[in-house]
Design a protein that fits this description.
Belongs to the disproportionating enzyme family. Its EC number is 2.4.1.25. It holds the Pfam family Glyco_hydro_77. This is 4-alpha-glucanotransferase. The protein has about 650 residues and is of the alpha/beta class. The chain has 3 domains: about 55 residues, no CATH class; about 80 residues, Immunoglobulin-like; about 500 residues, TIM Barrel, CATH 3.20.20. It has 20 helices and 24 strands. A hairpin with a 2-residue loop joins strand 9 and strand 10. The longest helix is centred in the middle third of the chain and has 23 residues. About 40% of the residues are buried.
Amino acid sequence: MKGLSQLYYLHGIGYDYTKYTGEHVVFEEKVRTEALRCCGIETADSALIEQLNFELDIAPWQRVVDDVCLIEQHDSLLKFKLPDHQLDGLASLKIQKLDYAHEFELTSGVVVGEYQHLGVRYVEVAFQVAPISTGYYSAILSLPCGQYETQVWSVPTQCYNPLQSKVVGLSIQLYTLRSDRNLGIGDFGDLQDLISHSAQSQCDYILLNPLHLLFFDQQHRVSPYSPNHRSLLNPLYIAVELCDGFADSQALTELYQQTLSQLQDQKSQTYIDYAQVSEHKYGLLSALYVHFKTHRSTQEVSQFIAFQEDFSTALEALDGDEQAIYWQWLAWQQLESCQQLALKMGMCIGLINDLAVGCADDSLEYQANRTLYAQNAHVGAPPDPWAESGQNWGLPALNPLKIKRRRYEFFKQLLRNNMRAVGGLRIDHVMAIRRLWWCFEVEEKRQGCYVYYPFEHLMALIKIESQLQQTLVIGEDLGVVPPEIKAVMQEANMLGNVLFYFEKNYNGEFVPQTELRHQALLMVANHDVPPFVAWWQGDDLLLRVEYQLLEENELESERLKRENEKHKLLSWLADAGVSHLDINSRAFDVYERLMLALSHCPTQMLCMQLDDLDEQTLPVNIPGTYLEYPNWRRRLSRSTGEIFEHKGDFIATLTQSRKGI
């Protein structure tokens, strides 16, 4: 393998893939070439190509040890490279932080790889060393030929997983919560209320939408999956009246009551008017900051400074804006309080955060890390039945080689910040740690291909951070999943994500409950598919016609398909022992029986969507729309208290059935 073909491989540019139709597709040369150009490589420069191939293929064998050295705890093998004539003498690995020193003979290793260059045989050799506790450590490798600095990562075998039995929980979009006290958008005060109700019904977790920072001055951009910064929180989730110092200020109390009154009409609407809500709420948050500046105590100042030191990397994106930093401090305090409340009330996991797969291409996160990204490439999905030209999610693509810079610090911080103050982390589109579909223009036409990422190191980071922070990890693995991802997730005790809607066999029948995956989070529906009541009643089909995603003359055909799906579900329920339902049964009655049947399945985590308990007929998001449908704005119809008043008995019955009570 030489020239461009070699560079494609070394740079992670995919060669082929299997399309949803089963067709084997080989990427065109011009497509792969454009992917390299997006990485800043001039593909017509043969000297550059030769130089890059040397740096990526030969030079690593001449470096002895990489910047990062992985030591898997299941075998404690230290690996490094040497010319074979230097495999003699005494070596040592020292980690000053741990007072760790391990000596070994270079003749005691096992050769696990080799490379020939200019008559020299380089070998990669593995040596068993004394165990090292989980974490990242600056280390010195001493050899007869010299001393080499590296960072040793001691990688646990598995992610943290506290589950001893099957559990039940809720999934919510936090902003959708209604209450008398919030300012037009669900907030951390509403989350506390939901935690109390959920814990009393013996739920063990609440799965949240991504809480990432959105765009302060662009209120039409409200998708939590296309955020401004993934390591910062959305200040609109702050419950203002629960902040320290609020109750002591008559002026703040009066302003809060005035704001609440001004938003009453908006709060009664189906959809959040982000422009109106943001104007009023940021006004109140600004007043809260002024109060803090005027009345802050010595203790508060110390705590604020400590927060800034702890979050220094992420906060750099705010460019010293103390007011914005103050809001981050409040938001993280309240999220932490919510998690502590959940644990205090007996939830075994508590809150589960959601990490979006990327950030917007004009975001603070992108600006702060621009050098890590490819040029003119976005991530998306390959062609599928709903998008024959593929999907472009509009999120900039990270350059797989550049994220190695600073020892993968970018991804480490991203994980660490999103695991803070929660008991679990759901990683959206977890396949991204292995490969991502890049979209770009080739000859004025959208093209794309898979680009592969440093899977071993990114997976190591997930396992290390999960154990260090005692955080359960769920990888959203819906769609086409490379087999190596499934295998590694299973070995690492990382849970997958199952949508019942999609769990069908080769005949198109719903799979029996006994065959549903054990190591997973099971949901009937999520934010990208219709709520159950809408699905059963066919409301989503009418909505697709309304927004021109479905032609009027196709509606009847789609209704017949849906009727067929409903009969398949009734057949599945009959096999599960539920025989009293029919095609005309009330939607929520079917949902109740479905969830109760699923409570007996082997899957570790069963999830109720609060939208379904609210009997919602409107989705929070319609894929394929942007501003046509008010995505990510729809509120719930009832408050948390009202939902639990109407559905509390069912929730309690479900949790008791699940736990065998």
